Amino acid sequence: MSFAKKLKLSCLLIMLLILMLSSNGYGYDITDKFSIGGIIAGEWQYESLSDAEGFDSEGRGALVFQPEVSFKPTDSDEVFAKFGFGAGNGLMEEGQSPFILAPWAADVQDDYEDISGRNRDYLLTAWYKHTFIFGDDHTLGLTGGIIDACDYMDENAFANDEFTQFMNEALVNGPNAFLPSYDIGGAVEWQLEGFSIKGVVMALGTNGEEGEFDEPYNFFGIQLGYTVDFGLGEGNYRLIVDATSDDFSNVAGTKKERMSAILFSFDQQFGEVLGAWVRFGFQDDEAAIDYKDIYTGGLNISGNLWGREQDNIGLGYGHLRGGNLDVDHTDVFEVYGRFALNDIFAITGDIQYMKDSMEIGESPSGWIFGLRATAEF
User: Fold this and answer.
1) Residue 252 neighbours by CB distance under 10 Å
2) What's the mean pLDDT when you consider all of the chain?
C-alpha cells in the first residue's frame, strides 16, 4: 500500500472514531476555541441510457471524505481548513456518461489531485477571517487565503448542497455562473439587518482548457442579498454578477475573451411544510460556452408533514439553453427523498431524468437512479 493510501486510510479511521464520539451533527468541540467537523458521503447511481452510442447502461459509485478544522482565538477571528479525499469517480468516470452535466455535483476522486492546476492535492480551502462587529445586526467580514466562491455566492436554502439536497449539477448551483473553487482569493461580507453584500476575487491556476490554451485567469464576483419574513417564513433574494479576465478561448480558438454572467437565486418558505426556490441567469457568449441561459426551480416538502422534522422531499426541474458549442438545450428533472436516521446519518433515494438535445448527432437521454448515504459531524 502506498504512503498516500495509508495516509488517507489513517485519516479516515481517525475521523470515523471522532464521528462516533461526537454528540451531534454540527462539529466536535475539542476546546472552546478548536473544533473539527466534516462529512463522509457515499453514493451509487445507475444510468439507463437512450440514443447514446458507445455508452453502456450501468452503475457506479463513489465515496467522499471532507474533514475540516476550525480555530477561533477570539470571537472575531477564525482560521479554517478543509481537506478532501475520494475513492471512485462514480458516473463521472471518463468515458462513462454521455451527459454534459454531472449527475452528482460533488468533488470525487480525480478532483482532489492537482487542484486548480496548482500541483496541490487534498487541501481544498485554508483561510483566515476577521469579523468587525458594529452592532447586533451589522457586521463586516474579511477573508483571505485559499477559498471557494460557492461558500459566499449563490447560496440557496433548498438547492445548494449536493450532500443533503439535489445531486444533479444543474440544481445545486447555476452552472452558467462559473463560480470557481479552491484557489487563492479574498472575500468581503457586509450585512446590515436583512441586507447583505458579498464580494469575491480569486486568482485561478487554470482555465480548464487543454494544451497551449490552458492558462491562469482571474475571477470577480459580487452578490446583493435581501432576507425577509412575510409571516409565512423566511425568504432570501439574491442577485449575482460575476466576470473573469479575458483568458478564455472563443469558439474558433483565435482570440481570448472574458466570461461574464448575471444570476438570480431566490428561496422562500411557505409555512412549516412547503418551500419553493428558483434560479435563472444569463451568460455572455463571447467565449466558448456550453450554456447561455439557465432556468431552474422546485419545491421542498418538509418532514413536518409526517411528523419527522429532519426528513424532506425535493422536486426540481431545469432547462438550460445552449451557448455557442454543440448543445441546443438540456433538460433535467430530479426528485429525492431524504430520511434522517439521527442528527448525523441520513439516507437519500434519488431519481433523475436528463436529456442533452444536440445541434448535430445523437441527443442522449436517460434515467438515473441513485442512493446516497451521508454522515455529517
Assistant:
1) 7
2) 92
Number of neighbours of residue 180 by Cβ within 10 angstroms? 24
Q: Render pLDDT for 251-283 as a digit per residue (tens, 0 to 9).
A: 999 999 999 999 999 999 999 999 999 999 999
Q: Are 279 and 153 in contact (CB under 8 A)?
A: no
Residue indicated by cell numbers 475540516 = 68
Q: In this structure, are residues 262 and 280 in contact, taking their beta carbons and an 8 Å threshold?
A: no
The C-alpha R_g of the chain, in whole angstroms, comes to 21
Sequence length of the chain is 377
Q: Which residue has the cell 482560521?
A: 79
In the chain the first and final C-alpha atoms are separated, in Å, by 28
Q: What is the pLDDT of residues 287-333, one digit of tens each?
A: 999 999 999 999 999 999 999 999 999 999 999 999 999 999 999 99
Helical (H) or strand (E) element with 168: none
**Cα 205 from chain centroid?**
20
Q: Give 86-131 pLDDT, tens digit per residue.
A: 999 999 998 889 999 999 999 999 999 999 999 999 999 999 999 9
Closest CA to 259 of 294, 289, 295: 289
Q: By the 8 A CB rule, do 351 and 336 touch? A: yes
Neighbours of 284 (CB within 10 A): 16
Cell representation of residue 356: 442533452
DSSP labels, 83-126? E-EEE--GGGSTTT---SS-SS-S--GGGGSSGGGSS--SEEEE
What residues does each domain of the chain span? 3-376
Distance separating alpha carbons of residues 368 and 97, to the nearest angstrom: 11
Cα–Cα distance for residue pair 281/279, rounded to 1 Å: 7
The CATH number corresponding to 3-376 among 3.30.2000.10, 2.40.50.140, 2.40.160.10, 2.120.10.30 equals 2.40.160.10
Q: Which of 202, 108, 222 is nearest to 146 (CA)?
A: 202
Compute, in degrees rounded to 10, the torsion defined by CA atoms 129, 135, 136, 137. Answer: -80
Question: Which grid cell sits at 363?
Answer: 441527443
186-207: b or e for each residue (b if 16 or more CB lie within 10 Å)?
A: ebebbbeeeebebebbbebbbb
The distance of Cα 197 from the centroid of its chain, to the nearest Å, equals 20
